[in-house]
Write a structure and sequence with these properties.
The complex is a heterodimer of chains A (182) and B (439). Chain A contains 4 helices and 7 strands. Chain A has 182 residues and is α+β, with helices and mostly antiparallel strands. Chain A has one domain: 2-Layer Sandwich (60s Ribosomal Protein L30, Chain: A). Chain B is globular. The chains are: A alpha+beta (182), B mainly beta (439).
């Protein structure tokens, strides 16, 4: 629990955001960026914050939303990529901005960037692709204020698929970087 | 021609000497052989020893080895009109009338010291004469007799084809089994026919990229235990392993130099940038071979040790390049056909590369002439990967998918013979063929 001034009260977020339940459904996957735009509502700056109730002293208790919770940009923990590419698509910029700001504001927190590839092609090259994707995310987070010692990278290539099918839908879910907070 | 041989039947006896037997026995099926495989008969060997039957049917193993090669059509034992075990008992007429071109007979003797002696002869039926005869002395265990049987098959194969046989070699591969959310990765070494599988490493985190040492005694591989990648070198006989690289970032794609003293590997220690390095295993000195912001990985040494081939996407997509191993420096692009050529492996003669090649949306194994870049697609799957040459250069084993399952397959480098090598359990991948055993 962090006590913040009422000024930081986030009008765009209802109490209901607390019940979001930590879902990590990849709304941005497979070219569907409706999730990205829906998540923009009201998140200012660090984003993803949410109110929890009115304190007895007339102030307001505000719980900073943990990454992965709620439905703001900070709730999203997976970034998806195009085939054989490691550039960050524009539909993930809000999300990475939110995570960068969260890390900047919470210097004690660290995140592990786990890069992955789809199963096509050779395995060690795919390890390389996963690493390049994780590094691309790392660079963006650092531009947003995170510091290098908060960020670790690992690449699993095609060894840890999120979806098991051999079709474009599964492939698009597997070409990803997962943000794993510690 | 479809021939399915249930190897499991031969491997009922579990030998335990600190080695775990894998439950992922694999089975060979020839999916395409030569147009007219040579008809031959391998008669059950005679037995001179305790009990009515030999402890192991060497002739059956020889027969299945030669049949599995796709080049020969061994006759079923029940179709044989005679069962000679000594040269004097052979009547060529018996075999001419059933259209057998070559005949193998043999005899096994249990010696007083516990060893076994196998004598066998190969006959040309049409010419009515013996081609060769050999005598082998071996131990008495099933494992010993199995090794001897592969050796007999290798000698016959070489005599009839002029190509050194690889029945006595081994393969290493990765097996993954999913049990609910849990996953089990195993690094397995088996005989080249899939028999005798032994787990040499097991983990709940991915294992990948096994590579044989040139003497066939060690494997280098990548393990993600502890949720990070490290390269290990493990001695197969003892199971003792050493972590040779666990630097920041990626530690991947290990391969031994032809003299076994160095390991080429991929590291991303320089700000996440993947490059190829050489690690001296004796003194741990690391030499950087490439320096480029692109992905440089999947190195392999040319057999003469002079140059190293590797995958790089410095021109956009992955292609194969070559660099001088001693000096580094000038880097030469090798592949130009198609938008995706990765994971080069080189033939024992150094004259051909096997690569993963994109062929109209399919990932297939192709042969590349390193001098001209000429590319020839060999396999016919859609997700083929991890090619590895047999030590005789005549076959390539690779990983493919069948019905959503990872299985192994092999193809002759002339494209004429294909074999499917299916796993009974789990996903099988990343096969690597051992060097010839040292005799």
């Amino acid at each position: 629990m962090i006590r913040l001034l009422p000024i930081l009260l986030l009008l765009g977020f209802g109490l209901s955001a607390c019940g979001g339940g930590g879902s990590t459904i990849p709304t941005g996957a497979a070219g569907d960026d409706s999730g990205a735009t829906a998540a923009n509502g009201g998140a200012s700056g660090a984003g993803g914050t949410s109110t929890t109730g009115i304190g007895a002293d007339g102030g307001i208790d505000v719980t900073r939303m943990e990454p992965g919770q709620g439905d703001g940009p900070l709730s999203r923990l997976v970034i998806y990529f195009d085939f054989d590419r490691s550039e960050i698509r524009s539909d993930f910029s809000d999300m990475l901005r939110a995570h960068g700001a969260f890390l900047a504001d919470n210097g004690e927190r660290a995140v592990r960037l786990e890069g992955h590839a789809d199963e096509r092609g050779s395995r060690e090259y795919n390890i390389g692709l996963g690493e390049q994707r994780a590094q691309a995310v790392r660079r963006v987070l650092m531009l947003q204020g995170a510091s290098g010692n908060q960020l670790a990278t690992v690449s699993y290539g095609e060894e840890r698929p999120a979806a098991l099918g051999s079709d474009e839908n599964s492939y698009s879910l597997n070409r990803r970087v997962e943000l794993v907070y510690r | 021609m479809q021939r399915r041989l249930a190897w499991a039947a031969f491997v009922c006896v579990v030998t335990v000497l600190g080695i775990m037997r894998a439950d992922a026995q694999i089975v060979i099926e020839v999916t395409r052989g030569v147009e007219r495989p040579v008809p031959m008969a391998i008669v059950p060997f005679g037995w001179e020893g305790p009990g009515p039957q030999a402890p192991f049917d060497v002739a059956a193993l020889v027969s299945s080895d030669l049949g599995n090669s796709g080049r020969f059509a061994p006759m079923a034992v029940e179709d044989m009109v005679a069962r000679p075990t000594q040269p004097a008992e052979v009547r060529f007429q018996d075999w001419l009338i059933v259209d057998v071109d070559y005949l193998v007979i043999g005899d096994m003797v249990a010696n007083a010291d516990g060893s076994h002696t196998i004598v066998f002869q190969l006959f040309n039926v049409l010419q009515g004469e013996q081609i060769v005869g050999f005598r082998l002395t071996t131990g008495s265990s099933e494992a010993d007799l199995r090794v001897a049987g592969h050796r007999v098959a290798d000698m016959i194969f070489e005599e009839l084809t002029g190509i050194q046989g690889v029945f006595g070699t081994q393969i290493a591969y990765v097996n993954e089994q999913r049990m609910g959310l849990e996953r089990r990765f195993q690094l397995i070494v088996s005989d080249s026919d899939g028999a005798n599988p032994q787990v040499v490493a097991q983990s709940s985190e991915p294992l990948m990229s096994p590579a044989w040492s040139p003497d066939g005694r060690k494997l280098a591989y990548v393990s993600f235990e502890g949720s990070r990648s490290s390269v290990y070198v493990q001695e197969l006989r003892t199971g003792i392993r050493e972590r040779v690289s666990s630097r920041e970032g990626i530690n991947g794609a290990p391969v031994f130099s032809p003299d076994g003293r160095m390991l080429a590997l991929t590291l991303s220690r320089d700000q996440g940038n993947l490059d190829v390095y050489m690690l001296n295993l004796a003194n741990q000195i690391l030499t950087r071979l490439t320096r480029h912001s692109a992905i440089d990985t999947e190195a392999v040494w040319a057999p003469d040790g002079e140059s190293i081939y590797f995958t790089s996407d410095r021109a956009g997509g992955p292609q194969v390049y070559r660099v001088e191993a001693r000096r580094g420096g000038r880097i030469e692009r090798i592949t130009y056909e198609g938008s995706y050529n990765a994971r080069p492996r080189i033939s024992p003669e150094g004259d051909r590369l096997a690569v993963v090649h994109e062929d109209r949306g399919n990932y297939r194994i192709a042969l590349v002439d390193p001098d001209t870049g000429l590319t020839q697609v060999l396999s016919n799957g859609s997700l083929d990967e991890s090619p590895s040459f047999a030590p005789n250069g005549a076959l390539i084993i690779y990983a493919t998918q069948e019905g959503g399952r990872g299985v192994l397959a092999s193809v002759s480098t002339d494209g004429r013979i294909r074999q499917q090598i299916a796993s009974v359990a789990g996903q099988v991948r990343e096969p690597v063929w051992s060097p010839f055993p040292r005799i």
